[in-house]
Amino acid sequence: MVERQGHRWVFRMHSDQSEQMYVAGDFNHWSPTQCPMRRGVEGMWECELRLPPGKYRFRYYCTKRGWLTDWAAFGVERNHTGGWDSILLVPARVAWPVRRRPTRMKASPVPRLKLAV
């Protein structure tokens, strides 16, 4: 599972059997040991990365189980070995328009009516 937390992306994977887990993908040239994950509670592993906008393929590498696909990511695509790569879509930052305070409207003068007597 991958989720955004501020400007970082948190990768999470459950594995009770692992001695160590890593995240590998396009963002680190598929290095199986460059991005180690931290062991959390109840077999949950996690790693935080700051990534520029783009589409990334990634997988988890488990020292005991080998390569694992994150089926809860933004999608999966077949890779050149016949396996499945997980997909992460990092959107471009959206520049929100500056919210301006509403301008106060000047009271328009009320026309005076002449009454015929």
Give a written overview of the molecule.
- With 117 residues, the protein is mainly beta.
- It has a single domain, classed as Immunoglobulins (Immunoglobulin-like, Sandwich), CATH 2.60.40.10.
- The chain has no helices and ten strands.
- Strands 3, 4, 7, 8, 9 and 10 form a six-stranded antiparallel beta sheet that branches. A four-stranded antiparallel beta sheet has the order 1-2-6-5, with no helix packed on it.
- The protein starts with a strand and ends in a 27-residue tail after the last strand.
Tags for this entry?
single chain, 117 residues, mainly beta, Immunoglobulin-like, 4-stranded antiparallel sheet
- Runs with pLDDT <50, length 5+? none
> How many domain units?
1
Distance between the termini: 83 Å
Order of helices and strands: EEEEEEEEEE
Query: Could you name the CATH homologous superfamily?
Result: Immunoglobulins
Q: Biggest sheet, open or closed, and with what strands and sense?
A: 6 strands, antiparallel
Q: Provide the CATH architecture.
A: Sandwich
Average pLDDT value? 85
CATH topology: Immunoglobulin-like
- Strand percentage lies at 35-45%
Please state the overall shape, judged from the principal axes of the Cα atoms.
Answer: elongated
Number of helices: 0
CATH class categorisation: Mainly Beta
Helicity, in percent?
under 10%
Return Rg in Å. 27 Å
Structural class: mainly beta
Number of DSSP E strands: 10
